Amino acid sequence: MTRRVPEELTCAEMVRLVTDFLEDALSLEDRTHFEQHLVFCKGCAAYVRQMRKTIEASSALKGEGLSAEAQAELLRLFKGTCK
Amino acid sequence: MIAYKFLAAGRTGPFTGYVWPERQWVDAPSSREGAGVHACRIADLPFWIDHELWQIELAGPVVERETQVEARRGRLAGRVGSWDARALAEFAVHGALRARDLAVLALGDAGIRSDALARAVTLQETRVVLESLPALSGVPAEMAAYAREACTRALDGAAASATHMAAVAAVALLGPTGFAAERSIQSRWIAERCGL
Amino acid sequence: MDDLRAAAASAEDARILDALRAGDEKAFLALVQSLNGPMLRVASLYVSSRGVAEEVVQEAWVGVLSGLPRFEGRSSLRRWIFGILANCAKSRGVREARSTPFSDMGPRDDEDEPAVDPSRFLPPDHPRWPGHWSAPPTAWAEEQVLNKESLAVVEAAIAQLPMNQREVITLRDVLGWNSAEVCESLGLSEGNQRVLLHRARSKVRGVLEKHFGAGGGR
């Protein structure tokens, strides 16, 4: 109720909008308010940074590849298909 | 058009991470509205506080919006050297003491004398006085709380936060126009401090 | 920029296709090796074990090889291969679900818990800062985010997500596909994809935060 500056975003709203911000899907007006909030709010700046780091961590996950036998089997198959 | 731009340390765009070259023209990455080169008029400065302040030359059509301008091209023309760590710290103090001034006004309106608060010079002193005020309620209580919080932020070196609090406190005391009025006082403070 | 990249990608596709059709074993192995990890990851979304996922990837390659002469390049080579893979994996997943009493595909994506515990924000009737942090997040020791232990935490957090969130975060963040590719591949609208991505990322962040012990803040 006592939102002193109605156009400003609350931190709870920032948390809801963070993916839209990172995906560049906010309206220009919302994005400006989002960025202004980041300037004055250390908590939200930390939150956005953590989201970016989380994404970076996901992209750093490594999967193992196929086993050597499976690859050899695929190569045999390939030779069989292309004569 | 000549405007200003706040950047994080190392000429880094605070939201994009883009490292601005010095004195070279940079084109907007796309023609989409919002994807251009953003910059500040003097009145916009308090909204975008950061570690480095640069003068930026803008070219192409410039769109003026409420708290920023946007151009298709920009070139960092030179750094405003007077905006340094010290200026940032002083700006934080300015915000906190303005919040204190507003609290003094609110207390006066309520018939509460607060000479010690009005006279306090340092942030620590101000905070001590704020904490020793008699139990308050209503607007004076709220204004004292804003001032106390702003002192705490300023003591942490969080200039953007302390000055934002002053602007929000101004709304609590003066109504909706208080915000823009306080931001305008802050922009004049920056312009004067940095000789813009 | 995007057009340039697309043109470069399709030229690369054409080169690979020519090589495959000419029976170039090195080109085939290179393709297998580059897609192998991502393919296993996608297959693992739909089937129960690593072993079954390997079988599914094998099966998909069989489909790719037999389809190769007819592939017309209407979509990118990679997208085409992953399309075949997803079909193989999903039908295998369905068969598995029929033969096991409780399929462990994770919860469905019902109306979700919030991204951050509401008690970490000041209440809506707070006199000065309604909806602002009461327990703000504190900065992480960022050099730890990419260490082995943290990555294992991230891997486990993703595995716990509801299926549709897991699909989106795997394709977008783990494999690095762009949103258009993910929408097409999963049949989602942009908006829907973003909602699922948001929930997924928010939860993984929350798990990492707990891992770093910063839960309550000061």
Provide an overview of this structure.
The complex is a heterotrimer of chains A (83), B (196) and C (218). Chain A has 83 residues and is mainly alpha-helical. Chain A has helices spanning 11-22, 28-40, 42-59, 68-81. In chain A, helix 1 packs parallel to helix 3. The mean pLDDT of chain A is 91. Chain B contains six helices and seven strands; from the N terminus they run E-E-E-E-E-E-E-H-H-H-H-H-H. The longest helix of chain B is centred in the middle third of the chain and has 25 residues, at 85-109. Chain C folds into two domains: 2-99, RNA polymerase sigma factor, region 2, helix turn helix motif (Rna Polymerase Sigma Factor, Chain: A, Orthogonal Bundle), CATH 1.10.1740; 118-211, Orthogonal Bundle (Arc Repressor Mutant, subunit A), CATH 1.10.10.10. Chain C starts with a helix and ends in a 7-residue tail after the last helix. The mean pLDDT of chain C is 88. The chains are: A mainly alpha (83), B alpha+beta (196), C mainly alpha (218). Chains A and C meet through helix 1, helix 3 and helix 4 of A and helix 2, helix 3, helix 5, helix 6 and helix 8 of C.
Short summary:
The complex is a heterotrimer of chains A (83), B (196) and C (218). Chain A is mainly α. Helices cover 69% and strands 0% of the residues of chain A.
Rg of chain A (CA only):
23 Å
User: How large is the share of residues in beta strands of chain C?
Assistant: under 5%
CATH architecture call of the largest domain in chain C: Orthogonal Bundle
Tally of alpha and pi helices of chain A: 4
Q: Determine the N-to-C terminus distance of chain C.
A: 45 Å
Which superfamily, in CATH terms, is the homologous superfamily of the largest domain in chain C?
RNA polymerase sigma factor, region 2, helix turn helix motif
What characterizes the major β-sheet of chain A? none
Shape of chain C: elongated
User: What is the succession of H and E elements of chain C?
Assistant: HHHHHHHH
SSE diagram, text form:
The complex is a heterotrimer of chains A (about 80), B (about 200) and C (about 220).
Chain A: H1 11-22, H2 28-40, H3 42-59, H4 68-81
Chain B: E1 2-7, E2 25-27, E3 37-39, E4 52-59, E5 63-64, E6 69-71, E7 73-79, H1 85-109, H2 115-119, H3 123-131, H4 138-155, H5 159-174, H6 177-194
Antiparallel strand pairs in B: 1-4, 2-7, 3-6, 4-7, 5-6
Chain C: H1 2-21, H2 25-46, H3 50-67, H4 77-99, H5 148-159, H6 163-174, H7 179-186, H8 190-211
Helix pairs in contact in C: 2-3, 2-4, 3-4, 5-8, 6-8
